[in-house]
């Protein structure tokens, strides 16, 4: 019992004096990013990995679905029965589609949690920074008041040394000091209330990391010929739930949130199809500056135009700002704000990689066709040689 009692912390006592220099320095260390670098890096890496995992998952699913479609088309053309391979693939996809959609929804929920944690960390740093500024300003004001008080006391002492006791009684009363801990808790509670008052659209749809996740997921699931990603204003339903129905998965009974949610998502998908009927998204995989395929694509968070990193850095001036080099865009850009205004475009890079792989597959098919044509030509030549030999034999026999 004595050992446990000795470990009990004493009751907190609010400060009776403003923070001195060492206290302010300690407060400065709390909000400096050095102490949170590892945590911030982990949150950032989690955000990236969630997007990459969902992208890989849906690319695999798209490949399997394409195989099944091709198998069905060949069977219908030939008028044959289902092959064991097609039946096996159908059975596999029944489970795979459901699992892919469930994992996607779980990943999206995890991403929103990561974004919430990053917002909380930023609020903590901001509150601590404000407290440091307030403590520093307050210490200067207190020092000035103390100096004025000492000056008045010295003046009265010069007039009459006999009034020293009276002057001592007239010293200004001590200034009340607010508790730094209480101020921190109040400010943090206010920040939390302000964040929770935001709509899901404001919290997530306007967040660059969430938008990147949606692009990777949508591009991987929809493919190159699929519909474009809907506008961010349609990423959440009126009840605040995200719209995460896979492109092309109409009337998806495997939706983990239930048939009502799936129907609402399908309605959003129908609206998207109406937009596609008007115009499809055209995505350029070349840099507007170099006119060559993108290798390290960086996209401006405001105008959404993408450039090769080295090219756009060379284009931006060392001082001042310029307009976006994309024709018709007036977005202001500067090299000083590159890290804040530009973001590595993982979705665009994956699209470039898919296009390159598709071209390689097409080239391989072309090479195989050329080999088949060469084999057919050789067979025809051999047949002609054999026919010619038979004709000669007949001529010799007649002679």
From TrEMBL:
Q: Name one GO molecular function term.
A: zinc ion binding
Which intervals hold domain SP-RING-type? 272-357
Give the InterPro entries listed for this entry.
Nse2(Mms21), Znf_MIZ, Znf_RING/FYVE/PHD
* Pfam families cross-referenced by the UniProt entry: zf-Nse
| Family membership noted in the UniProt record | Belongs to the NSE2 family.
Residues of the region (Disordered) are 138-183, 222-272, 354-399
Q: Mark out the compositionally biased spans (Acidic residues).
A: 263-272, 364-399
Listed pathway(s): Protein modification; protein sumoylation
Question: Which ranges of the sequence are coiled-coil?
Answer: 58-106
Keyword Lipid biosynthesis applies: no
Keyword Chaperone applies: no
The processes (GO biological process) annotated in the record are: double-strand break repair via homologous recombination; protein sumoylation
Q: Which protein are we looking at? A: SP-RING-type domain-containing protein
This entry carries the following GO cellular component terms, namely: nucleus; Smc5-Smc6 complex
């Amino acid at each position: 019992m004595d050992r446990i009692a000795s470990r009990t912390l004493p009751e907190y006592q609010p400060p009776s004096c403003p923070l001195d220099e060492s206290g302010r320095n300690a407060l400065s260390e709390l909000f400096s990013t050095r102490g949170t670098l590892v945590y911030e890096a982990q949150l950032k890496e989690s955000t990236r990995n969630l997007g990459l995992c969902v992208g890989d998952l849906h690319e695999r699913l798209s490949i399997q679905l394409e195989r099944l479609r091709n198998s069905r088309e060949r069977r219908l053309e030939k008028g044959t029965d289902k092959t064991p391979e097609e039946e096996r693939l159908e059975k596999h996809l029944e489970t795979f589609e459901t699992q892919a959609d469930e994992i996607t929804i779980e990943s999206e929920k995890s991403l929103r949690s990561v974004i919430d944690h990053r917002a909380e960390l930023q609020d903590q740093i901001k509150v601590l920074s404000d407290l440091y500024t307030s403590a520093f300003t307050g210490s200067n004001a207190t020092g000035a008041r103390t100096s004025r008080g000492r000056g008045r006391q010295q003046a009265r002492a010069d007039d009459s040394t006999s009034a020293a006791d009276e002057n001592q009684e007239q010293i200004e009363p001590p200034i009340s000091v607010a508790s730094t801990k209480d101020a921190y808790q109040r400010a943090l509670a206010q920040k939390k209330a302000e964040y929770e008052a935001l709509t899901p659209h404001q919290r997530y749809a306007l967040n660059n990391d969430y938008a990147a996740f949606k692009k990777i997921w949508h591009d991987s699931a929809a493919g190159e010929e699929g519909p474009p990603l809907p506008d961010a204003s349609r990423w959440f339903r009126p009840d605040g739930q995200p719209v995460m129905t896979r492109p092309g998965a109409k009337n998806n009974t495997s939706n983990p949130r239930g048939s009502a949610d799936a129907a609402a998502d399908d309605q959003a998908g129908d609206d998207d199809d109406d937009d596609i009927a008007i115009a499809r998204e055209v995505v350029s995989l070349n840099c507007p500056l170099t006119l060559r395929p993108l290798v390290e694509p960086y996209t401006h968070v405001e105008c959404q135009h993408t450039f090769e990193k080295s090219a756009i850095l060379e284009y931006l001036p060392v001082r001042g700002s310029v307009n976006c080099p994309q024709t018709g865009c007036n977005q202001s850009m500067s090299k000083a704000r590159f890290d804040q205004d530009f973001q590595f475009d993982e979705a665009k890079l994956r699209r470039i990689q898919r296009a390159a792989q598709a071209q390689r597959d097409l080239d391989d098919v072309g090479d195989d066709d050329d080999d088949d044509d060469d084999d057919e030509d050789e067979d025809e030549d051999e047949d002609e040689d054999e026919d010619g030999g038979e004709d000669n034999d007949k001529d010799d026999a007649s002679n």
